[in-house]
Amino acid sequence: MATTRRTLLGAFAATLLLATAAPAAADQRILGLTQTGTPLSEEVQSGWRLVYFGYTFCPDVCPLGLQTMAEALDILGPLGEKLTPIFVTVDPDRDTTKVMANYVTFFHPRLIGVTPTQDELRQMAGAWRVKFAKVDVGEGKPYLMDHTASVFIVDPSGNVAGRLSHNLPADRMAEKIRGVLESRS
Q1: Does pTM top 0.70 for this prediction?
Q2: What confidence score (pLDDT) does residue 140 get?
Q3: What is the per-residue pLDDT across 113-163, written as a single tens digit (0 to 9) for each?
Q4: Which is more confidently placed, 46 or 19?
Q5: Residue 10 clears pLDDT 70, i.e. is over it
Q6: What are the residue boundaries of the structural domains of the chain, listed by start?
Q7: Which of 22, 91, 100, 165 could pair with 113 as two cysteines, CB 3.0-4.6 Å apart?
């Protein structure tokens, strides 16, 4: 009985997640250079992805979101291996490929850091419905970036299959990701 209830709840959660997912835009691709200085491969662009927009100088939201995403991937085990985690900076002026290379290693060995140009970032922001803005916090202090803090589940066709809050506990995030993947298999 508990297994049936859990299965039904998982299917219901996946249905809600799919119903609230934003439809994909025709140009909804990830643009920019990875932490190795190369464009994101077509293989990665055509597989299951977890995509998070943020920046490396973020004091709290981004590290929490990336750590939760990494833990969810580990909880998923072999199912998590089907997903490529991607972190796209909304602060390309500071987040160079070198900075991204150092930063992503703190979270997950498969995490790909992407640094777009300002034009690529504006194009992606429109396509992904992501908001970002520079916030001046006072003279002599480094600026912050206000930004959308969601983890996007993207299917191999490039459609956003789910949008998760960055502050879900890792086990809940893993459960929601599992629900989406199983409903689409």
Answers
A1: yes
A2: 80
A3: 999 999 999 999 999 999 999 998 888 888 898 888 899 999 998 889 999
A4: 46
A5: no
A6: 2-183
A7: 100
CA distance linking residue 158 with residue 100, whole number of Å: 24
Instruction: List the single range of 17-31, 68-82, 106-120 with lowest mean pLDDT.
Output: 17-31
Torsion of CA 160, 162, 168, 174, to 10 degrees: -100
- Three state DSSP letters for the chain: CHHHHHHHHHHHHHHHHHHHCCCCCCCCCCCCEECCCCECCHHHHCCEEEEEEECCCCCCHHHHHHHHHHHHHHHHHHHHHHEEEEEEECCCCCCCHHHHHHHHCCCCCCCEEEECCHHHHHHHHHHHCCCEEEECCCCCCCCEEEECCEEEEECCCCCEEEEEECCCCHHHHHHHHHHHHHHCC
Residue 46, pLDDT above cutoff 60: yes
Q: Cα separation of 31 and 40, whole Å?
A: 7
Q: Are 132 and 90 in contact (CB under 8 A)?
A: yes
